[in-house]
Amino acid sequence: MKAPTPLTAKVSTIVDKKTVYICSPLRPVSTDPIFRANELIDNLKLPKDACTFAALRGCDPVAPHLFYPQFLNDDDEVERALGMELGLKALRSCDELWIISPRISSGMSAEIKEAQKCGIPVLVFTAAGFREYIGNGDMTDNCYADTADGVIDQKKEPRTLRELIAAVDMHKGTNKTLLASYNDGDLKMEVYSDGTVAARRHNRRTSFKLANCTDYQYHSAVVEDGGATPTHIDAETFLDERWELRLILEAEDRFMK
Q1: How many Cα atoms are found within 13 Å in the side-chain-facing hemisphere of 135?
Q2: Of 28, 107, 141, 168, which has the fewest CB atoms closer than 10 Å, so is most exposed?
Q3: Diameter over CA atoms, the chain
Q4: Which pLDDT band, with edges at 50, 70 and 90, does 226 fall under?
Q5: Kind of pairing, strands 96-99 and 129-132?
Q6: Which whole-number Å values give the CA distances from 9 to 15, 60, 155, 186, in the listed order?
Q7: CB–CB of 251/199 below 8 Å?
Q8: DSSP code of 125?
Q9: By three-state DSSP, how is residue 95 classified?
Q10: Do the strands 227-233 and 216-224 form a parallel or antiparallel pair, or are they unpaired?
Q11: Alpha carbons 112 and 120: distance in angstroms, whole number
Q12: Are 235 and 210 in contact (CB under 8 A)?
């Protein structure tokens, strides 16, 4: 058998972790056409953010209400019922159900009750973190109770370098906390609210300030006039890329010194 490549090994570690069912409303409740359209946009953004949150933490997210409406008409009761049936089938294979909304819709109610019947843990994603759901799937239940709404955006780690810099600026003057982390199995990095970046590879460690990660210059393999050609990359090039890209380059340079 062919030995797994580092990529397949990395994928398998994700697949081996828990599968989570994303439970949030899809159908708008407003009767105004404009408000209804905007509400649908928000209702689609919420599970997308939840899936991102889950995937970045090594989970396998399942969100049927993002998938089946691509080819089943949710406004057609027969096709909606089929989508619900397929969604419940997928739910039975999941390790947990995550409620990502203070409001329980009719579709969510059916999903929550099915999870409870199957013994699948039901968790509520609140501003304070996850807690066990103690309701019974009643549509009148407010899952967040007295916690803040919009919790996905509050809990999600920065994805781009621009977002990471903004997060550090926002936490100035507060207690030092972990803002973001990276681990590819070889290199580990942690970024803290005071702008400190700690990197480790095996027994080698280094640290530096996020503010020092500006323009980047390296020597390419192209040899001209008897030497390698230096290449300069402006800091702006990295701002909307994944934050770890620029920091990996910085850490690698420091490890080589």
Answers
A1: 22
A2: 28
A3: 75
A4: low
A5: unpaired
A6: 10, 16, 28, 13
A7: yes
A8: E
A9: coil
A10: antiparallel
A11: 9
A12: no
If you compute the radius of gyration of the chain from its CA atoms, what whole number of angstroms results?
Answer: 23
| Encoded tokens for 32 | 């105004």
Percent of the chain at pLDDT above 70? Answer: 83
Nearest to 210, CA basis, from 232, 191, 228: 191
pLDDT band at 12 (very low <50, low <70, confident <90, very high): very low
Distance of CA 215 to the CA centre of its chain: 28
The one-letter amino acid at 209:
K
Q: How many CB atoms lie within 10 A of CB 106?
A: 11
pTM for the full model? 0.54
Q: Is the pLDDT score of 86 beyond 90?
A: yes
DSSP category for residue 242: B
Q: Give CA–CA dist 157/167, Å, rounded.
A: 9
Rounded to 5°, the CA angle 149-150-153 comes to 150
Q: Is 185 exposed, middle or buried (0-12, 13-18, 19+ CB in 10 A)?
A: exposed
CB 145 within 8 A of CB 179: no
| Rounded Cα–Cα distance for residues 19 and 55 (Å) | 10
